[in-house]
Design goal:
Number of helices: 21
CATH superfamily of the largest domain: MutL, C-terminal domain, regulatory subdomain
Structural class: alpha+beta
Bound molecules: adenosine-5'-diphosphate, magnesium ion
Number of strands: 25
Number of domains: 3
Strand content: 15-25%
Shape: globular
Radius of gyration: 32 Å
Distance between the termini: 89 Å
Largest sheet: 9 strands, mixed
Oligomer: single chain
CATH topology of the largest domain: Ribosomal Protein S8, Chain: A, domain 1
Helix content: 25-40%
């Protein structure tokens, strides 16, 4: 039998390094966090070779006194907490006292530091955790830590490193994440001597100050398409920026979550985001968000992950609910706002046709009006001749359009003037025009109305003349029948029909004529993923999406002006009507000013 013995410090540090120092970006994170904790107002980071060859983090913080330098590099040594109670009242980024010894154990490491009280600076060098004596050096007040040849003594870890480019990307991400939460500290990041991040210090309100940093990192597109949201209850305060549903991305990478200014990746928080946007985005699209959650340190445990990237909330459901409802409220209040990128996309689609240059160049040189007049007169003759040939019905339609404009042009969604391609409603507004995707809009309207009916417990049912019998596996029959009462509240009446079939007696009236079999089979799929104790009502959005998808399809349906105006008026009253259930916009707006630009009138 093998003997049990205490691991040497160096070995213990290396084991800890396995968790704390996953890659170069983890080193940068720990060192920058230490600089923030040291009260620095200026933090400069330099990297070479993806951070594997060289990382240097220099700050102008309070430094480390000479007698404590060795201590700072020993395991479980920290200036940030003293007793167990402190662990539940953490106001610093660090507290575990593990980073420096871990990093030093897997690199060629040097630390220079200079406190205000001491006359000169001190330098400690170490290789793979073996320290050399501390010697005097030159440095302004603050601390400079250099990490060379990271993982030189742990080749297995080195093998896992990605390309320098990938590592650089991770490092940049770490620096920016921290910088976003600390606008009053200036940050720079140099890669091989080239500055890739530069944030000067800001003054003023936190939220507004974050904006320039966000804009330079996430792009102006984000800041122009984001809402400021805010919410609080007795224990938690939430502030942040969330993108309009029409501004979304393929991955959840651009979600920046902070708990007490600490960047975290937390499943609960991400779940709350998902839930807030659930019926506004397709499942494979993600909003871009930057959220700051401030919570009493006693109500959150940050000591659950060695790199402190995850947290555990004392009252998770409260946090979840606050995030969800605050975002939801913000989105609903702005539900009529379509992201500007959508409008930009639309506009760029309205390209001016490339017309042949006009022959009589002399005309152009003489007077620009002369160009316009022949074309203008042509327009009039065409219009006149058209009117003369137009059947009487068209005149009636013109009158209807005039009426429509007279009544509705001042409304938000404007006055319907035409339907094109059997699919799009064109409306005239006071300041421009709107094109509505009637199918997407209708889907949204059905969905919201249905949801209202369910919440008010007055779902209209459409009884089937002949009950529809649907065959399925016995376990699926059981699943459905167990939920029969709940399903009835959604307008779907079902009964068991033998061991392997059910019969459907009614469907939700709002969905119109639907394929009941397909609907029920889709519902079975949803129920499969649902835990027994979860009610359908708690999943109402997901569940409704499934059902609303079966609602009557309205693309390629001819609408008259009254139908169109009715849809526009409903859209004005319906929350979230600017996008369909899958996050696609339901309409685009073209301001007259932009139209004028297209025609060179501005
Ligand atoms: P922790 O941050 O969890 O306390 P570290 O190993 O990261 O543990 O650092 C150990 C200690 O060294 C810190 O508690 C702090 O007192 C000191 N220290 C580390 N970096 C700096 C710095 N840049 N400026 C001043 N003190 C520092
Ligand atoms: Mg630390």
């Amino acid at each position: 039998m093998k003997q049990i013995h205490q691991l040497s410090d160096n070995l213990a540090n290396r084991i800890a390094a396995g968790e704390v120092v996953e890659r170069p970006a983890s080193v940068v994170k720990e060192l920058v966090e230490n600089a923030i904790d040291a009260g620095a107002t200026k933090i400069n980071v330099n990297i070479v070779g993806g951070g594997l060859k060289h990382i240097c983090v220099q700050d102008n913080g309070h430094g480390i006194p000479q007698q404590q330098i060795a201590l700072a590099l020993s395991r479980h040594a920290t200036s940030k907490i003293k007793c167990v109670e402190d662990l539940f009242n953490i106001h610093t980024m660090g507290f575990r006292g593990e980073a420096l010894p871990s990093i030093a154990s897997v690199s060629r490491f040097s630390l220079s530091t200079h406190t205000k009280k001491e006359d000169n600076a001190w330098l400690l060098k170490s290789e793979g955790g073996k320290h050399q004596p501390i010697i005097p050096t030159a440095l302004a007040q603050g601390t400079k830590i250099e990490v060379n040849d990271l993982f030189f003594n742990t080749p297995a870890r080195l093998k896992f490193m990605k390309t320098n480019n990938t590592e650089n990307q991770h490092i940049k991400d770490v620096v920016v994440r921290l910088a976003i939460a600390h606008p009053y500290i200036s940050f720079s990041l140099l890669n091989e001597g080239k500055e890739i991040v530069h944030f000067g210090t800001a003054q003023g309100e936190l939220m507004e100050d974050t904006l320039p940093r966000l804009a330079s990192f996430l792009g102006r597109g984000f800041t122009e398409n984001a809402l400021i949201i805010e919410g609080s209850n007795e224990n938690i305060h939430l502030k942040g920026f969330v993108s309009l549903p029409t501004y979304n991305t393929k991955t959840a990478r651009q979600q920046y979550l902070y708990v007490n200014n600490r960047p975290v990746k937390d499943k609960l928080l991400m779940g709350a985001l998902k839930s807030a946007y659930h019926d506004l985005l397709a499942t494979n699209r993600h909003p871009v968000v930057v959220l700051f959650l401030n919570i009493n340190p006693a109500d959150v445990d940050i000591n659950v992950h060695p790199a402190k990237a995850e947290v555990r909330f004392k009252n998770g459901s409260q946090v979840f609910a606050l995030i969800r409802s605050s975002i939801r409220k913000g989105l609903e209040e702005s539900s009529q706002v379509v992201s500007s990128t959508t409008a930009d996309k639309a506009l760029s689609g309205f390209k001016t046709p490339e017309y042949a240059p006009i022959q009589q160049t002399s005309f152009i040189a003489n007077s620009s009006q002369t160009i316009a007049s022949p074309r203008h007169s042509l327009d009039i003759t065409t219009a006149e001749s058209m009117q003369m040939q137009a059947p009487p019905k068209a005149r009636a339609f013109d009158e209807q359009v005039d009426k429509s404009i007279q009544y509705f042009v001042a409304k938000k969604m404007g006055a319907a003037v035409a339907q094109i391609h059997g699919t799009y409603i064109v409306s005239q507004t006071e300041n421009g025009m709107i094109v509505v995707d009637q199918h997407a809009a209708h889907e949204r309207l059905v969905y919201e109305k249905f949801k209202q009916q369910i919440l008010n417990n007055n779902v209209e049912k459409q009884a089937l003349l002949i009950p529809e019998i649907i065959e399925m596996q016995q376990c699926d029959v059981d699943r459905l029948i167990k939920r029969a009462d709940e399903l009835a509240k959604f307008g779907l009446d079902i009964e068991q029909f033998g061991l392997t079939a059910i019969s459907v007696r009614s469907t939700p009236a709002i969905l119109g004529e639907i394929n009941a079999k397909q609907l029920v089979l889709d519902i079975v799929e949803d129920l499969r993923d649902l835990k027994k104790e979860t009610t359908l009502n708690s999943k109402i959005e997901e569940f409704l999406s499934t059902m609303a998808c079966h609602g009557s399809i309205r693309a390629n349906r001819k609408l008259n002006l009254d139908d169109m105006n009715a849809i526009l008026r409903q859209m004005e009253e319906t929350p979230n009507s600017a996008q369909c259930n899958h996050g696609r916009p339901t309409y685009v707006e073209l301001p007259i000013a932009e139209i004028e630009k297209l025609f060179g009138r501005r």
